[in-house]
Design brief:
This protein is of the alpha+beta class and about 425 residues long. The protein folds into three domains: about 35-170, Lipocalin; about 185-270, Lipocalin (Beta Barrel), CATH 2.40.128; about 275-415, no CATH class. The chain is about 20% helix and about 40% strand. It has seven helices and 24 strands. The chain has helices at about 1-20, 30-50, 170-185, 275-280, 290-305, 365-370, 375-380, and strands at about 55-60, 70-75, 80-85, 95-100, 105-110, 140-145, 150-155, 160-165, 190-195, 200-205, 205-215, 215-225, 230-240, 245-250, 255-260, 265-270, 285, 310-320, 325-330, 335-345, 350-355, 385-390, 400-405, 410-415. The strands form three sheets. Strands 1-2-3-4-5-6-7-8 form an eight-stranded antiparallel β-barrel. An eight-stranded antiparallel beta barrel has the order 9-10-11-12-13-14-15-16. Strands 17-18-19-20-21-22-23-24 form an eight-stranded antiparallel beta sheet. Helix 5 (about 290-305) packs antiparallel against helix 7. The longest helix is centred in the first third of the chain and has 18 residues, at about 1-20. The radius of gyration is 28 Å and the shape is globular.
């Protein structure tokens, strides 16, 4: 026991002596400011060192709701960045300023407005959900890794990861081929099977929702993806029926997909009935695309809108703003408006619509003060309305026309592409 006390005493003495040492060695050989400057310079050299620029896999929004996009970036030593992307025409580019700086880490910032890159963060881009937040993309990114082979970024606002790899080949040709591949392979709905189990997958933007069974349990999972020249690549691997899948490779000749790691899992495009396509999409309309019945209803509302300084930017039927099918208004106020509609599908080309009495955003203002009832009546308000649907392309519709079975003048053509009212 005395020997144990002596050993403890000696250990305490050593620790006390170490604590009282007047000087400590600096574990770093340079100041934090100098280290930050060196890291910034190194990252700048990597970014500007790619002779043909970078291919960026970019996912806006914190849950990757809108999927991934192919962005091409070329950084110059004078602080300019030139951008192209699959959201623009293949030959379009836009040049703006960028910087690499210290801000709770080394940050890459797109400092001035870039028509292509800021498409993802522009509040005026109503392709996005929420209350006029656009696609909720980042323009400030933490640099997590920077080598000549790969740059890995993390959006400061969204937390979504982006990966840059050196770009090979002609920019315009690449964008054109990506857009052609997307047009060839993407659909609103797919069937997935491993030979025993089956699942359905619906697509909104570049995000799949996969509905499948695990034993007796019905499950659903999102799978954000980006389009590649050979298929689709998920933001992160998914697990389906106990098997890991990073994406699908597309067979252009046979119009079918095979999971990258699992040859037994295949996916085929399904052409759903037009009424199913309608209620799972977002369909924009203009004043000119409305028949006389709907135009007259809007004319009754327009004086109240003008008196309150309200202008409609976009109106559409779909679930983009609320996650629930309804009549959506994006105007020049700070809050978008949704009137949810109940629906019933009849056969393959008819739908019954009826406003369910609820609302979100500025719904109370529109209903109680502005008098939107006549516009809601166009789609079914006081009584349900039954519409017959026709389209320009059953496989990949860009237009759907609703014709009221009871009121021939109530005809409205709606567009899959975003169009201003």
């Amino acid at each position: 026991m005395k020997k144990l006390y002596k050993m403890l005493y000696m250990a305490a003495a050593v620790l006390l002596a170490a604590a009282c040492t007047p000087e400590e060695d600096d574990i770093f050989s340079d100041s934090s400011a100098n280290r930050a400057d060196a890291a910034i310079e190194a990252d700048m050299q990597v970014l500007t060192g790619a002779a043909n620029g970078w291919l960026m896999e970019y996912y806006p929004e914190m849950s990757q709701t809108y999927g991934g996009y192919n962005i091409l970036l070329s950084f110059s030593e004078d602080g300019h960045v030139t951008v192209a992307g699959d959201v623009a025409n293949p030959t379009d580019t836009s040049t703006s300023l960028f910087s690499v700086k210290q801000s709770a880490g080394i940050v890459l910032s797109f400092d001035t407005y870039n028509e292509i890159f800021h498409f993802f963060s522009d509040p005026g881009n109503s392709q996005g959900g929420g209350n006029a937040y656009g696609l909720e993309g980042d323009y400030d990114f933490l640099i997590l890794e920077a080598t000549p082979q790969q740059v890995k970024l993390k959006g400061k606002k969204s937390g979504s990861y982006a990966v840059l790899t050196p770009m090979e080949g002609d920019w315009a040709t690449y964008i054109q081929e990506i857009q052609a591949a997307e047009s060839a392979m993407l659909a609103a709905q797919y069937n997935i099977t491993d030979g025993t189990n089956s699942a359905t997958a619906s697509v909104n933007y570049r995000n799949m929702t996969i509905n499948y069974m695990e034993g007796e349990e019905a499950l659903s999972m999102p799978a954000p993806f980006i389009v590649t020249l050979t298929g689709i690549k998920f933001y992160e691997p998914i697990t389906l029926w106990g098997q890991t899948i990073s994406g699908f490779t597309y067979d252009f000749a046979n119009d079918s997909f095979t999971a990258n790691e699992q040859a037994n899992i295949t996916m085929k495009r399904e052409i759903p009935p037009i009424n199913q396509t309608f209620i799972t999409g977002n369909w924009f309309m203009t004043y000119e695309s409305m028949g006389s019945f709907a135009q007259a209803a809007y004319a009754r509302l327009q004086p109240a809108l003008a008196a309150n300084g309200i202008q409609w930017g976009y109106i559409f039927l779909g679930d983009m703003l609320l996650g629930e099918f309804g009549f959506n208004i994006v105007d020049n106020t700070t809050s978008a408006t949704v009137f949810p509609y109940d629906y019933q599908l009849v056969g393959e080309d008819q739908v019954i619509l009826y406003w369910n009495g609820m609302g979100a955003g500025n719904a109370t203002l529109y209903y109680s003060q502005l008098g939107i009832s006549p516009v809601l009546e166009v789609f079914g308000n006081y009584a349900p309305r039954t519409f017959t649907l026709t389209t320009d392309d059953p496989e990949s519709p860009t237009e759907i026309t609703l014709t009221d079975n009871a009121e021939p003048s109530n005809v409205i053509t709606m567009y899959a592409a975003q169009v201003q009212f």
